[in-house]
C-alpha cells in the first residue's frame, strides 16, 4: 500500500467543508469510535 502524509491544517484549509475537515475540527463527534 501507499502511505500518505499531510497536516491537519492543509486538509482543513484546502477543503473546509470536507468530511476530514469536519472530523478534525471537532464540530462533529465520531460515532462508533468509543473505547470502553
Structure write-up:
InterPro entries: SKP1/BTB/POZ_sf. The protein is an all-alpha fold and 36 residues long. The protein has helices at residues 8-14, 19-25. α1 crosses α2.
Task: List the quaternary state of the chains.
Answer: single chain
Number of helices: 2
Radius of gyration computed on alpha carbons: 12 Å
* Global geometry: elongated
For the biggest sheet, the summary is: none
**H/E series, N to C?**
HH
Number of DSSP strand runs? 0
User: Pairing-aware structural class of the strands and helices?
Assistant: mainly alpha
Low-confidence stretches: none
Report the helical percentage.
25-40%
N- to C-terminal separation? 30 Å
The overall average pLDDT, rounded, is: 67
How much β-strand is present in the residues?
Answer: under 5%
Would you spell out the secondary-structure blueprint of this structure?
Blueprint: H1 8-14, H2 19-25
Helix pairs in contact: 1-2
Task: Note the main attributes of this structure.
36 residues; mainly alpha; elongated; SKP1/BTB/POZ_sf
Task: Describe this structure in a few short sentences.
By secondary structure, the protein is mainly α.
Amino acid at each position: 500500500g501507499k502511505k500518505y502524509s499531510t497536516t491537519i491544517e492543509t486538509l482543513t484549509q484546502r477543503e473546509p467543508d470536507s468530511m476530514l475537515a469536519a472530523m478534525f475540527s471537532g464540530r462533529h463527534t465520531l460515532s462508533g469510535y468509543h473505547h470502553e
